Amino acid sequence: NVRAEPTTDSRVLFTVERGVPFKVIKRQGDWIHIEHADGEKGWIYHTLVW
């Protein structure tokens, strides 16, 4: 799940399937701010990144 803010209490914006590339914008603690190929941005927990 990719979330609006770097917390599990934040709403889910979209999901990313395994193998789909995305750009890392920045890291904040255990969270990574990403940008999907279609321009959508959000936060994903570091253990969910492969």
UniProtKB/TrEMBL annotation:
Residue stretches making up the SH3b domain: 1-50
Entry-linked Pfam families: SH3_4 (PF06347)
Official protein name in the record: SH3 domain-containing protein
Organism, scientific name: Desulfotignum balticum
